[in-house]
Amino acid sequence: MAAQKMSLSKAINASLRKALENDPKVLIMGEDVGKLGGVFRITDGLQKDFGEERVIDTPLAESGIVGTAIGLALRGYRPVAEIQFDGFVFPAYDQIVTQLAKMHARSLGKVKLPVVIRIPYGGGIGAVEHHSESPEALFAHVAGLKVVSPSNASDAYWMLQQAIDSDDPVIYFEPKRRYHDKSEVDTAAIPDPLHAARVARPGTDLTLAAYGPMVKVALDAAGAAAEEGKSLEVVDLRSMSPIDFDTLQRSVEKTGRLVVVHEAPVFLGTGAEIAARITERCFYHLEAPVLRVGGFHAPYPPSRLEDEYLPGLDRVLDAVDRALAY
């Protein structure tokens, strides 16, 4: 099939459909994923085509969804569990971090749990708290979990295929405000490795690192900076655990400056780990401190204040200016 332009949401749907077609052991489960097709219509049409035994509407019980997925994986299935919104994952947090993440080590490698947990995350859609969180750092901190987030339709398609094929549990964060963003998807391509970062825009003066919903903001910032004669390299991290520090290091050794951008609060966020590691690795190459741009250390605000809370173009460019001023 030739490459075609599709939205990020349609790419996820196509990826799930492909996985269901390829392997009868793949199951999809979650609240309203069947007849409704999910609140974001990501699983639209899948239950109709594959049946209620493979696309399963579950009770409103996140702990039960993940616990059942673990049991199914123990029996040889490859369940893909959807958590309807980011803030709803916490009733299942115990199952994820004490059971799902630890079973492989607990069994000395004898037991594998190929479970994917899809979580729409982040703000930008005017939703209330518990519908707009960015909890990726909580899961990236847990040994035994892989944590990834696509920023475009092509990555959404391929990274989900790779997550489902993985014998390790993967938390797959979907940037919900990018669901309708379109890009080319070549379903016959050879994809990048699941945890490899990618240079989304080359540059020479400063590295902007981002993932998920903030990659577009970083690219917009690089475009705006270019109008002022500044050359910014944008690195799409794609994976928060593990992080591809080698690609990031090569970029920073070239540019001498790094700004990390994510929606989650800056305090103890993914950017903190990146800043520390890059400072250790690139100390003699850095021309300025590694700067971080993110949300505030406060509960998610009402929709009228969302634009003030989330890092946008101005806050990113301000950090770029501060880094370049050194």
UniProtKB/TrEMBL annotation:
Gene3D superfamilies for the chain: 3.40.50.920, 3.40.50.970
Signal peptide: none
Cofactor(s) named in the record: thiamine diphosphate
Domain called Transketolase-like pyrimidine-binding: residue spans: 6-181
InterPro entries: THDP-binding, Transketo_C/PFOR_II, Transketolase-like_Pyr-bd, Transketolase_C
Top-level taxon: Bacteria
Pfam families named among the record's database cross-references: Transket_pyr, Transketolase_C
Record key words, sorted: Oxidoreductase, Thiamine pyrophosphate
PANTHER family hit by this protein: PYRUVATE DEHYDROGENASE E1 COMPONENT BETA SUBUNIT, PYRUVATE DEHYDROGENASE E1 COMPONENT SUBUNIT BETA
Name of the protein in its database record: Alpha-ketoacid dehydrogenase subunit beta
